[in-house]
Amino acid sequence: MKILLVNPPNCGRSIPEERYGINSIRQIFRGEPLALEVLAGNLADHEVRILDLKAEPESLHSTLDVFRPQLVGFTAVTCEANTVLRLAGEVKESCGAVVVVGGIHASSDPSFFNRPEIDYVIIGLGKASFAELTAAIEAGTTTGGIPGVATTRPGEALLFTPRNFGLPDLVEQVPPRYDLVAAYRAGYTLSSIGSQIGMVASAFGCPFRCSFCCISSQAGGRYLTHSVEAVIRDIRLLGTLPVIRLVDANTFGNIGHARLLVEAIAAAGIRTNFIADVRSDTVVRHPELMRQWQEAGLRSVVIGFEEIADNDLTFFNKENKVAINNEAISILHELGITIVGDFIVSPDYDDARFEVLEEYVISRAIELPILTVLTPLPGTALYSELHERITIRDLDYYTLTNAVTATRLGEKRFYQQYARLMKQFHARAKL
After folding, report:
1. What CA dihedral angle connects 178, 252, 216 and 55, to 10 degrees?
2. φ, ψ dihedrals at 70, nearest 5°
3. Mean pLDDT of the chain
4. CATH architecture entry for 188-428
5. Where along the chain do its domains lie?
6. For strand 203-205 and strand 223-225, is the pairing parallel, antiparallel, or unpaired?
7. CA torsion through residues 91, 96, 97, 99, sign
8. How far apart are CA 172 and CA 91, in angstroms?
9. pLDDT tens digit sequence for 93-149
């Protein structure tokens, strides 16, 4: 079967830009479509291509005309969901291919895609279930009983059998098809340092349940780690790239696994720079592990500090304290590991809250602060909690840089303050 896997183009809309001419907030993310490379790795019996519309935004129709796929698979985060529906309609009109959608938004809010343009929705990890679906379609057998795969029924409730995710769903014996994005590889760079970057997954899901986060839907609430051997294999497949991004929600969610992995990296003689996600409480509890990783090439860590007051962290079900965040910052600075610090700006912020956040970040010399606006994403606990307060339901605005609930400050003032901090932090950034 001819299968085309599509990474949607950069999309999403910006309220501060549209209403107030503030064009410094909208963020464009362009990274390797690892989720599609992983899917493709388990489709050995098919002719597979990956089309990255973030790199080639106008190439869908020409690719459909030349390749004539029988099945087209899309991935999508929330702000891309409307665009994927539009593109799916264009696929149907152009070649009549079977259309499948997966990814984080499909896993968190599968009913959104219960539309005529879509034939199937993949809920959660799709490496195994997508392969099972394609095999059934090609064989002409029933697709209704595949766990984790929903057949759309527009106008009726979406029905599917939940998948009990486990290690077999990782299908570790087959690596990602990095070769399918070779034409785009030079464009996958880390803009802050101008280096090429490759992506490797060592774990899926997350053992924590922060209310704003949609990661738990990925593996049905479980936390699954790749074998150390599979991770080393995938790192080596990327060759001599100067930076490897471990794209797990929490690379250190299993301390034993993280220790075995860093020991294997050192034993294999791998010399590259790593970027990984870690919780601050993990840094505080296991500084010796962080030192091991630093010696093996860990250059930067991404930490979700989220807020700078304990009561706000409790509201997010973060299971952490500001004092622990502060201690982690000190440990990482001592080790020479740079910090990409994620902070959530609430629409409830007033001028004083912006100033306190500004002082906190600057006084602690966080190298690259990232500010996102609190966004109740569909399918999360936060969405259920704030549902009645949501004023904007068009998913195009769910970019994490728009306030979709009412702001305490006047809206223009809120975005001016947000833009001011982003500009200041980015000007000071070091990575």
Report:
1. -30
2. -95, -20
3. 95
4. Alpha-Beta Barrel (3.20)
5. 2-167, 188-428
6. antiparallel
7. positive
8. 31
9. 999 999 999 999 999 999 999 999 999 999 999 999 999 999 999 999 999 889 999
- The string of DSSP letters for 310-377 reads HHHHHHTT----HHHHHHHHHHHHHHT-EEEEEEEEPTT--HHHHHHHHHHHHHTT-SEEEEEE----
Cα torsion for 402, 403, 409, 413, to the nearest 10°?
10
Q: What's the predicted TM-score (pTM) here?
A: 0.95
Residues in the chain where the model's pLDDT stays below 70: 26-30, 191-194, 430-431
Burial of 393 (0-12, 13-18, 19+ CB in 10 A): exposed
Q: Token pair for residue 340?
A: 């990409």
> Which of 373, 420, 35 has the alpha carbon at shortest distance from 204?
35
Q: Spell 133-160 as b/e; 16+ CB within 10 A means b.
A: bbbbbeeeeebeebbbbbbbeeeeebeb
Diameter of the chain by CA atoms? 63
Q: Order of strands, edge to edge, in the sheet holding 2-7?
A: 47-52, 2-7, 71-75, 98-102, 120-122, 149-151
What is the rounded distance in angstroms from the CA atom of residue 282 to the CA atom of residue 208?
12
Which 3-state string (H, E, C) describes 284-324?
Answer: HHCHHHHHHHHHHCEEEEEEEEECCCHHHHHHCCCCCCHHH
Is 32 within 8 Å of 201 (Cβ atoms)? Answer: no
Decide if 153 contacts 118 (C-beta within 8 A).
no
Residues 6+ apart with CB under 8 A from 311: none
User: Rounded to whole angstroms, how far apart are CA atoms 266 and 271?
Assistant: 8
Would you state the structure tokens that stand for residue 56, as one six-digit string? 């080639």
* Domain topology for 2-167: Rossmann fold (3.40.50)
Point out which residues pair with 340 in neighbouring strands: 302, 368
58 CB-near residues (< 8 Å, 6+ apart): none
Query: Which of these, 213, 187, 219, 214, lies nearest to 201 by C-alpha position?
Result: 219
